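seq:
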Amino acid sequence: MLSKYLIAWFPMILIAIANGTVREFVYGPRMSDLAAHQLSTFTGIVLFAAYTWALAVWMPLASAGQALRVGLMWLVMTIAFEFVFGRYVAGHSWAALFADYNIFKGRVWVLIPVAVFILPYLVHVMRR
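struct:
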């Protein structure tokens, strides 16, 4: 089951890109960068939750432990993708990449990896 959930992580990239595109072109121009970032974080979590729920209906996880292993795998993949892609493909500086994790400046992006980690477990528990 872990290999299926490993593959199932990749559409999350498309979900994140779609979420970011909506932020950039729909509501981002109408609000401050910080507010757009915060709203985008919230909508990203909602979209990932819906996707995780759909996966759980289609491919239910057998146990809470398995759900936590999936969450950990998704967390590692998400952070690795963000920093590798952000740095070496998008060309962002390390400072810019880490800035999104500064909750003291209202940057709540850290909630995305937290959600990606915990969502398989939460969905598993809620579906029981």
